[in-house]
Design a protein that fits this description.
alpha/beta, TIM Barrel, 11 helices, 14 strands, binds S-adenosylmethionine, binds iron/sulfur cluster
Length: 347
């Protein structure tokens, strides 16, 4: 079935992926694995049990599912996880997705640990944008936050991605009070030196990561902006990435040559749900309609019960739009209500 044709019974006027609040979904974030070589303190607990491999979607199933979304009007897919680059044979999936007719943007979010050896392949396979997470520029701290990560490898990974010619690379940082809140300016200066955009993400209360009090350590976007403005003047940018980031440009003379943007993703302090254009699929094939709610549909069950039935899968996805919640609620009576960890969700 071609992209223009709709599943039976649907109005040709509306995009099939329009929810009951009038929002159209054109962006899929696909978690290709829940596994990771890091154990970041805000994302996972130290002792993790990962899903048995047979519970994960196969790479073929992920391609089939992505094709269904693209035929329904999705033109942007981000591969995430867990750490997407530790999934075995991920290059095959990337190459297959790179060939999907109608997919304009194939993106990746990574911790950077595998980029040194994989960047060229990623560029060749058509990855157009990469987000690389980096929370500290001090090796010991980096290791303390990620529990297992080596800063040096990530720095080499960033260089390799730039050398491979991937045009749009953005850095992502989560600032945690008492851990790296004195590195906000150094991280901005690192982004300036590399000529890369950087986004600061507020820590979200996703799942139980052990004995941390997230509400006590979460640093708001506003606090981070205030710190940056002690050193640099910021002006809001009118450009948007059609995502939750609100962007600023630096106007200070000492950064006059720079063209970088500083983004703030503020799921706690600034609700961006009214413009939500995305859904997520977990590595076990659960379609999550919202980051901060548990509403979901089991797409793996449909794929395995009706192998090769594209129409059935597309109809299931279209019907799922009816349960996309209006907005996220991270807390219920002051208690976190989302039990999924971020690596399960696909950040
Ligand atoms: N492993 C890859 C990485 O770290 O970039 C991709 C998956 S990770 C879940 C995606 C993004 O989510 C990372 O930038 C990470 O910093 C962020 N993240 C993880 N847990 C978070 C949390 N509880 N609150 C806010 N951001 C979180
Ligand atoms: Fe791994 Fe990314 Fe989670 Fe860190 S944030 S533990 S790198 S999935």
């Amino acid at each position: 079935m071609s992209k223009a044709e709709l599943p039976s019974g649907l109005s040709p006027k509306l995009s099939p992926l329009t929810d009951k609040f009038g929002r159209t979904v054109n962006y899929l974030r696909l978690s290709v694995t829940d596994r990771c070589d890091f154990r970041c303190i805000y994302c996972m607990s130290e002792d993790m049990t990962f899903l048995p491999r047979q519970q994960l979607l196969t790479l073929e199933e992920m391609t089939f599912l992505s094709q269904a979304f693209v035929e329904l009007g999705v033109n942007k897919i981000r591969l995430t996880g867990g750490e997407p680059l530790v999934r075995k044979n991920i290059q095959t999936l990337i190459s297959n997705l790179g060939e999907l007719d109608g997919l304009d943007d194939l993106l990746l979010t990574t911790n950077g640990s595998q980029l040194e050896q994989m960047s060229s392949q990623l560029a060749d396979a058509g990855v157009s944008r990469i987000n690389i997470s980096i929370d500290s520029l001090c090796p010991e701290r980096f290791e303390a936050i990620t529990r297992t990560g080596k800063l040096e490898r990530v720095l080499k990974g960033i260089e390799a991605a730039q050398a491979a010619g991937i045009k749009r690379i953005k850095l992502n940082s989560v600032i945690v009070r008492g851990k790296n809140d004195d590195e906000i300016i150094p991280l901005v200066e690192f982004a300036l030196e590399k000529g890369l955009d950087i986004s600061f993400i507020e820590e979200m209360p996703m799942g139980d990561v052990g004995c941390r009090d997230r509400q006590g350590t979460m640093v708001t976007s506003e606090e981070i902006r205030d710190v940056i403005e002690t050193a640099y003047s910021l002006v809001p940018s009118t450009e948007t990435s059609a995502g939750p980031s609100r962007y600023y440009r630096i106007t200070s003379e000492k950064a006059a040559d720079s063209n970088i943007r500083i983004g703030f993703i503020s799921p706690n302090s600034h609700n961006f749900c009214d413009t939500c254009n995305r859904v997520r699929v977990t590595s076990e094939g659960r379609l999550l309609l919202c980051l901060g709610n548990e509403h979901s549909v089991d797409l793996k069950a449909v794929i395995r019960r009706y192998p090769g039935d594209m129409e059935k899968l597309k109809n299931t996805i279209v019907e799922a739009m009816n349960i996309k919640p209006e907005r996220h609620y991270f807390y219920d009576d002051d208690k976190p209500q989302v039990v999924r960890l971020m690596n399960m969700t696909g950040g």
